[in-house]
Amino acid sequence: MKRPSFMQGRYGVDKLFFAVTALCLLILILSFTVLRYIPHISIKGVLGINGLIMIVNTARIFSKDIGRRQLENIRFTLWLNKLRGHSGTPRPANRQMLRPQKNINSTPKCSCGTPLDIPAERGSHIVICKNCGKRNLVKK
């Protein structure tokens, strides 16, 4: 299936999007079945907050800050793994995405051979190759 052209350069959907959407649907179902009988809870307030969460969740799809959205999804996956009792890193579709580059002294390169532009801040960064578009995790 081909992506629409307006989604070029946008983040799209991920595991965090589906989890938040499922949680909002669960809250929606609970508000019409159970919360209706609790006198101190306003159903309109619950639905309003639920709607705001869905708007923010949908805005993540159209974000151009791909690196930040990926870090959010990785953090969510790590947290979910902790809840399940699994340890270690999440299993991405591309295993090399979470591996740090091996060349510490020189500038890191993508698997296609293009040098990567690294942000000035210290820490881990997901850097996208300008040539092939591959995501690389680089530790500085």
Plain-language structure description:
This protein has 140 residues and is mainly α. It has 3 helices and 2 strands; from the N terminus they run H-H-H-E-E. It has a two-stranded antiparallel sheet with strand order 1-2. Helix 1 packs antiparallel against helix 2. The chain is elongated, with a radius of gyration of 20 Å.
Q: How are the elements arranged and paired?
A:
Blueprint: H1 15-33, H2 43-61, H3 66-84, E1 124-128, E2 135-139
Antiparallel strand pairs: 1-2
Helix pairs in contact: 1-2
Describe the structure concisely for a colleague.
By secondary structure, this protein is mainly α.
Major sheet, described briefly? 2 strands, antiparallel
Number of strands: 2
Task: Provide the structure class.
Answer: mainly alpha
Estimate the mean pLDDT confidence: 82
Question: Which characteristics define this entry?
Answer:
2 strands; two-stranded antiparallel ribbon; mainly alpha; 3 helices; 140 residues
